[in-house]
Amino acid sequence: MYPRQFDYVAPSSLEEALAALDANPGAKVLAGGMSLLPMMKMRLLSPEMVVDIGRIGGLGDITDNGDSISIGALVTHTEVSASGLVQEHGAALATAASWTGDRQVRNRGTCCGSMVHADVAADQPVAALALGATMVAASSGGTREIAAADFFVDTMMSALEPNEILTEVRIPKAGPGTASAYDKLGRRGGHTDYAVAGVAASVTRSNGSISAATVAVTGVGNRPVLAAGVADALVGSDGSDAAVEAAAAHATDGIDVLEDLYGSVGYKTHLAQVFAARAVKAALSAAG
Amino acid sequence: MQVSMSVNGRQVSGDVEPRTLLVHFLREDRGLTGTHVGCESSYCGACTVKMDGKAVLSCTMLAVQAEGADITTVEGLAENGELHPVQEGFWERHGLQCGFCTPGMIISAVTLLEENDNPSEEEIRRGIEGNLCRCTGYHNIVRAIEYAGAKMRGEEPAPAEWENA
Questions:
Q1: What is the CA B135 to chain-centroid distance, rounded?
Q2: Domain boundary among B42, B74, B106
Q3: pTM of the predicted protein model
Q4: Which residues of A touch B20 (CB under 8 A)?
């Protein structure tokens, strides 16, 4: 299977890449290619130009900014899952990255690419939501920051404009008593493949009760989405198993659950509740 | 477009279309047909090659993305006519039947053992999660990789299960 013909450029600087996007409105950005190339091979997508950002220096690092950490555009799933910084401040994302695709896919695919692809059942976007991540988008006009909560717009549609490149996923550092976790059922069982349903949760425990919580659900609706009902029910509770299970019952409140090949509305709703409870319990356990 | 890379230790170059996939460059331009084209949708792992030390899918990469890279295919594993320990393991522990998945499976196993020279059975099974085999049920593949791991650590491999039967 060959993609349709396209023009290819591999600029060595971000400025050149952004100029190429401005000059070619039909262009697509190639990083790891684990989502873009299969779509091009299946001819679901036939861009006139591919702008390969793989040769641009400075985009392949996970950096410590003091109060946050940044994951650059070329950082792979393998690197995210192995990063001590991500494990410490965004365990949900490290876990989600370790369950993305398979070993070969994780060696090439990028965290930023997963965000931009915005698959309805992907692992990492919900981790970004739960962690309160900020997406940093560059264009020739400058950079702008987009809250993860505003980034996932619809099925396979992010807030990124065609002339922008997501250069960075920025995660606030986890303060005392804060921890996160991700759990899912994969389409091929266990944690393998896209999520039939999955939940990422970040919680803060202080003085014996939960003072803050952010929970997000993947695989059940038209996009990775916040589960505000769970978070609202958790905050102020004592974090006991009974409280967590009661909160988890709100996993799909306000979410239009969609049936697909992998499950009915009822099954997906049930799974979202089960994994909401598991993810919150794991996060609470890590928060100490 | 001109593309050049190291393949099995030799510097090679060729003239390719941007859409030429690495696997087609290797098979058709270089004649290295050991790397197989399987599902073509990033699931089966038959096209796995080693690029700069890591297992990657050569059917889901443009040849031009491998510009300047160091590629190893299954043809590049044996040295001076001597099989790589992983190849020897697949032979000794019957790690293949039809052989279609074998080149990709072997490359995955080689990179796995390079990253972790004493993997547990679970780590081996996780390490080859991106390689599908429709014949063996994986059992003998795991034994083959255990055999290779022992050899690479300079240890005597455990006897084959059928020798204890």
A1: 17
A2: B74
A3: 0.97
A4: 2
